[in-house]
Design brief:
heterodimer, A: alpha/beta, six-stranded mixed beta sheet, B: mainly alpha, four-stranded parallel beta sheet, 13 helices, about 5% strand
Chain lengths: ~300, ~290
């Protein structure tokens, strides 16, 4: 069964929520008018504001329902029924988060899931733990295209994230990323961080027999460049497309959802994992939940 | 199964070695396009400027900066300012003009001698070469910023990572322009990129000099060549210990010299120290990014 989606490799108008929402809505309308009409538009991490806000997070964060309403209103009726995944700084009663919203737009739609970034990057150029709270967990949810999980940037660097998403039934993993470009060694023709993302996306897809979509931010923020280079991988780990460097782009991806079952049948790594996971956790000291050894053992 | 793991040579290949400049190799095509994007976005999109001014010294750093600006914004949007002092080498001027001609960048020459000597001759006639050099460097920034204001342009800086890490520049002079494309490139990487973008060989291949004192070269001043210093700096700021580098053959004297300069100039890479009195101290508690 084919599924058409669009990766929106996007540059926000930093700190200008109103202009950025208009930009997002324009992209959503363009996607809604495309032929064939995609089911889903995937924006990057912090697409609504830009990534490096420091203390400005508290001024730019909005609540998920407010974001849903704004996108629905600005995208207009032509976008009714279209799904959107978008990264934003989220405000709720408990605090501020680096989050990803998944929603079906329109009066008949609604918010299907909000994922809060679990692994907050706080090293080198990153300071997330200083400004936002960590999410509690990773879970999949049922969306119109199938069972989906959302991850945000460093979430995807931890192989356990893909594992948890797949074990919860996800056949599509959307990774929303804002990855500052670094590393310019000869060879790949792209910044070093994108070489790593390519390896990560391919490995996660092939290990679990899932589609992995990586939507990357574009633009410079205080000298740090988000280079784009979004990508999509099929359940065998093959890259379906690579977005351009430095440019905004709407990148259509056609996925054959039946491919997941074929890949998992031919290389049953996922069923091996399902079968072994619980036993592995309770018998592996590294899990932290090691079952106490029986007396006399 | 017989044999040794890792095979001989593999472990050594991971260790720093003075004859291995590999860690500093760059994809010049990628870096060139990266910096052009950086200039367009930071100058036009973020700050709303259409024009820039660059102090063109005749050296490779300012030549490369001007070339990148011309590629990013168009040569007509760049004004190269030649700012000689009476002791500046005539070759510097020739090379600056050659660079401007190569990249079709308009120039203007403003001799800073009377401004510099107006202060020094009347109030500090005994000032030595280094003080005169510092005054000249700061005077150049006065001109650069004033010309930028007059033209509604943005001054673009030219300092490279080597001189920033070694503290080999005049504080609040060379480092003061608000946008700098080369500040994360070591000098040897600047040379590589300059060759790739077509900076004339006379400019790339000559000994680097700040041209603040007659006959001065950077490498004589520093006591170590840039390729040596760059590699040592790279390994030091990547977490290697000076002793490890000395034992790996980098030369203890050179390692200590470079490490000493690095460790004694952290202050120079920061804004002035402000007394913190409140929980809203700017840059300590009240944190907003430069482009916010």
């Amino acid at each position: 069964m084919p599924l058409d989606i669009v990766i929106a490799q996007f540059r926000p108008s930093k700190g200008d929520l109103d202009a950025t929402l208009d930009g997002c809505a324009g992209i959503i309308r363009r996607a809604a008018g495309a032929e064939p009409r995609p089911r889903l538009v995937v924006f990057p991490e912090t697409a609504l504001t830009g990534y490096f806000l420091e203390g400005g997070v508290r001024e730019q964060a909005i609540a998920a329902p407010e974001l849903f309403e704004a996108l629905t209103e600005r995208a207009g009726v032509d976008a009714d029924g279209l799904d959107v995944a978008i990264g934003f700084y989220e405000r709720d009663a408990a605090g501020l988060y680096n989050s990803a919203l998944y929603a079906t737009l329109g009066s008949g739609g609604g918010i299907l899931h909000v994922h809060r970034k679990v692994f907050l990057a706080t090293y080198g150029v990153f300071q997330e733990e200083r400004f936002v709270e960590a999410g509690a967990g990773i879970r999949a949810f049922d969306g119109p295209p199938g069972r989906i999980a959302l991850l945000i940037c460093e979430d995807g660097f931890h192989s356990v994230s893909g594992t948890l998403a797949a074990l919860d039934g996800a056949s599509i993993i959307l990774i929303l990323s804002a990855s500052p470009a670094r590393g310019a060694a000869p060879g790949a023709g792209v910044p070093g961080n994108l070489v790593r993302w390519d390896a990560l996306g391919s490995a996660m897809a092939a290990e679990h027999g899932v589609f992995v979509i990586v939507s990357q931010l574009v633009g410079f923020e205080g000298g740090k460049g988000f280079a784009g280079g979004s990508a999509a991988y099929d359940p065998r780990g093959r890259r379906l497309l690579a977005g351009p460097l430095w440019e905004e782009a709407l990148l259509p991806v056609r996925m054959d959802l039946d491919e997941a079952a074929r890949a998992r049948t031919e290389e049953p790594l996922f069923s091996d994992l399902e079968r072994s996971w619980t036993r592995l956790l309770v018998n592996s000291p590294g899990s932290g939940i090691l079952r106490p050894a029986p007396d006399g053992a | 199964m017989t044999g040794v793991w890792p095979p001989p040579g593999i472990a050594e290949a991971c260790a720093p070695h003075p004859a291995d400049p590999g860690p500093l190799d760059i994809d010049t095509h990628l870096v060139g396009s990266w910096l052009v994007r950086f200039l367009r976005e930071e100058i036009e999109r973020r700050r709303g400027f259409r024009r820039v001014v660059v102090g063109l010294s005749g050296g490779v750093d300012s030549a490369l900066t001007a070339a990148l600006c011309a590629r990013a914004l168009g040569p007509e949007a760049v004004l190269a300012l030649l700012l000689p002092y009476r002791t500046s080498s005539p070759r510097s001027r020739e090379h600056a003009l050659l660079v401007a001609k190569t990249f079709e960048i308009p120039t203007r020459t403003i001799d800073i001698t009377s401004a510099v000597d107006g202060y020094l001759d009347e109030f500090e006639p005994g000032a030595g070469g280094h003080r005169r050099g510092n005054v000249a460097a700061r005077q150049r920034m006065i001109v650069l910023f004033d010309q930028a204001f007059k033209l509604s342009a943005l001054p673009v800086g030219t300092g490279n990572k080597s001189e920033r890490l070694l503290g080999y520049y005049t504080w609040h002079a060379d480092d003061s322009p608000p946008v700098n494309p080369l500040g994360d490139l070591f000098k040897s990487q600047v040379w590589a990129l300059a060759r790739a973008v077509g900076v004339p060989a006379e400019v790339v291949d000559k000994p680097a000099t700040a041209d603040l004192i007659q006959g001065q070269t950077d490498e004589d001043d520093l006591g170590v060549t840039y390729p040596e210093a760059d590699l040592i700096l790279h390994h030091l700021i990547s977490g290697r210990e000076p002793d490890d580098l000395a034992e790996a053959g980098f030369g203890r004297r050179k390692v200590e010299l470079v490490a000493g300069r690095l460790e004694s100039t952290h202050w120079k890479r920061h804004l002035p120290t402000v007394a913190m009195l409140s929980p809203t101290a700017i840059g300590e508690w009240y944190l907003r990014p430069v482009d916010y």
